Amino acid sequence: MSELRLIETRELALDDIVVEDRLRPVDEMGVSAILMTIREGGATTDPIDVRRVRRKGVVSFRLIDGAHRMAAERQLGNTTILASIHEGTDADARLMEIERNLARAEMKPVDRAVFLLEYKHAYEKKYPEARAAIGQALIAKRWDTTGTIPVVSFAAKIGAMTGQDESTVRRQIRAVKALERPEIDALRSSPKWVCYNDIAEIGKITEVDERRFAVNALAAGEAKTVNAARKLYRAARGEGPAPMSDKDAKFLRLMDAWDRAGPVAQRRFLSERGTDVSERLAEVLRRGDQG
Questions:
Q1: Alpha-carbon separation of residue 179 from 120, 231, 261 (angstroms)
Q2: How far apart are CA 256 and CA 272, in angstroms?
Q3: Are 120 and 84 in contact (CB under 8 A)?
Q4: Which residues does the UniProt record annotate as the domain ParB-like N-terminal (predicted)?
Q5: Most buried pick, 52, 148, 260, 272, via CB within 10 A?
Q6: Are strands 80-87 and 5-13 parallel, antiparallel or unpaired?
Q7: Do the Cβ atoms of 117 and 177 come closer than 8 Å?
Q8: How far apart are CA 277 and CA 2, in angstroms?
Q9: Is residue 273 packed enough to be buried (19+ CB in 10 Å), middle (13-18) or exposed (0-12)?
Q10: Per residue, what are the HEC states of the chain?
Q11: What pLDDT does residue 148 have?
Q12: What CA–CA distance (Å, rounded) separates 110 from 101?
């Protein structure tokens, strides 16, 4: 848990806030949502969080949480933003950044998994006694040896914060742990949010070329699942048949349903949809194909 100390809340110039080493990029959809809230309700957003750092006599303000709000204020033409100013360590600033983001429901699965992994590293660095163990060692490590501050395991801490059980937290971390940064960035750009199961399946692919192919296929929308992406990869290498197109799959399902229906159901179908069938048949005869 972050132990930053709140000093004050006041307006800061946007240009005076240092923004660097962020765990996720600013998402335009997120900025648009903030702008819509401000324009429709006329309400301002919550203060952003920054850390005051003094080095060699020079004071700077480093962003902890609020990059999307800063981007929204810039788009509105504003030059300042309300900020809660804290003091503390780099580790506590990172913990606060992650805690603030994990409390939000709109994060993509890949981003939530990245934040969980980073939180694990930061939390266990701050509380080494919270690292997972087994048996009596696990019980002992759940409590600070001073006997004054209870220190729960990382997974238990996140579970209490997000309402997820510990096994779910661990699965999300395993899902993203094996991925490289370019692969994570590619998954973020996918037109469809990539679910935890698919992220986990990607992490299990040991061959680098195949894993990158699967990531790119998902990011480009060429495959809906990791399994489909792996089939595309094998087909591209001549190691398997090309996956069936959606059009071919629908055709085969229709043919199968017709064959299994039997004469009675077929006659009923034709009585209900005979006009449609006649029109489609006429189109086929005019074009001279079966497309």
A1: 16, 20, 48
A2: 19
A3: no
A4: 10-102
A5: 52
A6: antiparallel
A7: yes
A8: 67
A9: exposed
A10: CCCCEEEEEEEEEHHHEECCCCCCCCCHHHHHHHHHHHHHHCCCCCCEEEEEEEECCEEEEEEEECHHHHHHHHHCCCCEEEEEEEECCHHHHHHHHHHHHHCCCCCCHHHHHHHHHHHHHHHHHHCHHHCCCCHHHHHHHCECCCCCCECCCHHHHHHHHHCCCHHHHHHHHHHHHCCCHHHHHHHHCCCCCCCHHHHHHHHHCCCHHHHHHHHHHHHCCCCCCHHHHHHHHHHHCCCCCCCCCHHHHHHHHHHHHHHHHHHHHHHHHHHHHHHHHHHHHHHHHHHCCCC
A11: 40
A12: 13
Tell the residue number behind the tokens 């980073």, with chain if given.
118
d(CA 285, CA 277): 12
pLDDT by residue for the chain (291 residues), tens only, comes to: 668 999 999 999 999 999 998 888 888 888 888 888 888 776 667 899 999 999 888 999 999 999 999 999 999 999 999 999 999 988 889 889 988 888 776 778 888 888 888 888 888 787 776 665 444 454 444 444 444 444 567 777 777 777 777 777 777 788 788 888 888 888 888 888 888 888 888 888 889 899 999 999 998 888 888 998 999 999 888 876 666 667 777 877 888 888 888 888 888 988 888 888 888 888 888 876 655
| Identity of the amino acid at 214 | A
